[in-house]
Design brief:
By secondary structure, the protein is of the alpha+beta class. It folds into 3 domains: 57 residues, no CATH class; 110 residues, DNA polymerase, domain 1 (Orthogonal Bundle); 198 residues, hpI Integrase, Chain A. 52% of the residues lie in helices and 12% in strands. A 4-stranded mixed sheet has the order 4-5-6-7. A 3-stranded antiparallel sheet has the order 1-2-3, covered by helices on one side. Helix 6 packs across helix 7, helix 7 runs parallel beside helix 11 and helix 12 packs across helix 13. 26% of the residues are buried.
């Protein structure tokens, strides 16, 4: 037995098991007649009665993971979840499941316990060399999956409960590149772009993406989701955490909707030339930074390590992250006495006060005013 109820605009079926009710989206929305409600209720009751009978058979972690991703994909199609969130969840789950498969084989979902999560975190620290921010994001990325497993009755308690999740590093002035360091990064990337446009340098995703950041001040997450064209059905700025970035039809500006804030960045000159060449070299169809030749799509996690390698190669401290480039872009404009208001509008700050904080004008900069 179960209940059919309306949650927002969608109808949900709640089925009872061991005194608990587990909600399942039916994918149906809008007004329903009483007859139609009874039909849906009966269909789902039959389905989950069989589901409970089959619970005596153990469920493999990989199979449950695939079911979860399929459900989340349908949520994206219905506009309940953003494509970016789905891609991030999929990446975190893939990394975790690959680790479990290598260490334990194809185990059942109920065999994933607190100890497995702890060992996974240690593996990411010690073997993969990830920092606190990355490992913390990994664990948060799989928490939703295990909550889903509890709701479905696959497990009784999520194995991530009572896990001490590593907190991200707090950004300090020691983690902000100096004027000299940022100029070194900028000089190296500008030099690469000149060679790339002349066909004298290889196609390098890391340096191309980094260059976009120092030229526009965009967040890494924004650069990675730039589309060649607007999707008229999807790119409308709706949804809880929906984000998009696309080139307008004239390829003269980037339209960005990120963190529920919309802005535009003009595109011309060297940026436009680079976009034309990327299109030719990568043969990408939807996203600018999607390589159709190698079937790869960068994300924030896969970007981190090669970016640090790039910094090391040009003798810049590899402790910096991709956000360094956005931060350096803002600071560089502030040092040139550009309008705080205009800088804030360009990079998408909610107030000019945030732009001032991003500036981090250190004492050596202020010395120039005195001496």
């Amino acid at each position: 037995m179960g209940t059919l109820y309306l949650n927002g605009v969608y109808w949900y079926f709640g089925y009872n098991k061991n005194g608990k009710q587990y909600p399942v989206s039916t994918g149906i929305k809008g007004e329903l007649s009483e007859k139609r409600k009874k039909e849906i209720k009966k269909t789902f009751e039959n389905r989950y009665e069989q589901h409970n009978i089959n619970r005596r058979f153990s469920l493999k972690l990989d199979n449950v993971k695939n079911d979860y991703i399929n459900i989340k994909t349908k949520e994206v199609q219905r506009g309940e979840r953003s494509q970016n969130t789905l891609r991030s969840d999929n990446q975190h789950l893939k990394t975790f499941c690959n680790y479990v498969r290598d260490k334990y084989g194809r185990i059942n979902i109920e065999d994933v316990n607190h100890d497995v999560i702890e060992k996974y975190m240690n593996y990411r620290f010690d073997v993969d060399g990830c920092n606190k921010t990355t490992v913390g994001n990994n664990v948060r990325g799989i928490q939703g999956f295990f909550r889903y497993c509890v709701r479905q009755g696959h497990i009784d308690v999520t194995p991530t409960s009572n896990i001490k999740i590593p907190q991200p590093y707090k950004r300090t002035t020691d983690q902000i590149p100096t004027k000299m360091e940022f100029n070194k990064i900028k000089k190296s990337l500008n030099s690469y772009i000149k060679e790339y446009l002349k066909d004298d340098s290889d196609f390098d995703w890391i340096r191309l993406i980094s260059w976009f950041q120092i030229r526009t001040g965009m967040r890494l997450g924004e650069v990675l989701i730039i589309k060649w064209n607007q999707n008229m059905k999807r790119d409308v700025g709706e949804g809880h955490s929906f984000s998009y970035v696309y080139l307008n039809s004239q390829k003269s500006k980037l339209v960005i909707y990120f963190k529920k804030k919309r802005r535009e960045i003009p595109i011309k000159g060297d940026i436009k030339k680079v976009l034309v060449k990327i299109k030719k070299d990568s043969q990408s169809k939807d996203y600018v930074f999607e390589n159709n030749k190698t079937k790869t799509f960068f994300n924030t996690t896969s970007f981190s390590r090669p970016f640090k390698k790039f910094l090391k190669n040009i003798n810049v401290d590899s402790k910096y992250t991709s956000h360094t480039l956005r931060h350096g872009f803002v600071t560089d404009l502030l040092r040139k006495d550009k309008s705080i208001y205009k800088i804030g509008k360009l990079v998408g700050h909610s107030t000019s006060r945030i732009t001032e904080i991003y500036g981090h004008l250190i004492s050596t900069d202020l010395e120039d005013l005195i001496y």
